Amino acid sequence: LTERFVPGLLALLLMVLEWTCPSLPSPLRPICDLRVLNHFIKEAQDAEVAMKSCRNGCSLSQSVSIPQTRVDFDVWDRKNAMEKAQEVQCGLWLLQQALGLLRSSVTNAALHGHIDNLVRNVLSINAVLRSLNIPEYTPPASSAGLESTWRASTAADLLQVHVNFLRGKVRLLLTDAQACQQDVS
Questions:
Q1: Which residues are connected by disulfide bridges in this protein (predicted)?
Q2: How many domains does the chain fold into?
Q3: What is the span of the domain harbouring residue 111?
Q4: Is position 76 within any domain?
Q5: Is 148 helix (H, G, I), strand (E, B) or coil?
Q6: pTM, rounded to two decimals
Q7: DSSP string, 10-77
Q8: CB contact at 8 A, 108 and 153
Q9: I need a labelling partner for 53 at 20 to 30 A (CA). Which of 14, 15, 28, 166 fits?
Q10: 63 lies in a domain?
Q11: What is the CATH classification number for the domain harbouring 70?
Q12: What are the distances in angstroms from CA 21 to CA 15, 132, 149?
């Protein structure tokens, strides 16, 4: 059980050390280090595999709103940093809501640990975005009017979208973040 939590705790420790000891020499700020995101993607993929092999007690009780993962790079490149951040934060909020519903729907104890990890990872990504001076997202009263959303009716679809969203829009936002740009002198 503790083996699953150690990498997440290590990633969180690296972020805290960066905030508390910014004078320590570091080749790349932990909040910009994509290895942390890669770890979150790996955990999301593990959850997706576990869900696909689950036979009992692993269904979604109702369909949920999820973010679209397709990226039109021409449209993405024309957006300013704030628009990109809002799109990613909205997607993370949708995923967090959907994962919460999935957690309450699933009765398979083995999947609870995976889902709990995914929720913690979404919260960690939100903390990373705040550390990059991206304003906190204010969710709407209802997800009904949100643009760029789909509906997922299965847990497998939800988890596949979660993986793809991290690999796509979250990665793009972090690599484009001003604070993460390497100074080339």
A1: 32-180, 54-58
A2: 1
A3: 26-150+161-179
A4: yes
A5: coil
A6: 0.80
A7: HHHHHHHHHHH-TTS--SS-GGG-HHHHHHHHHHHHHHHHHHHH--SS---SS-EEEE-----HHHHH
A8: no
A9: 166
A10: yes
A11: 1.20.1250.10
A12: 10, 16, 40
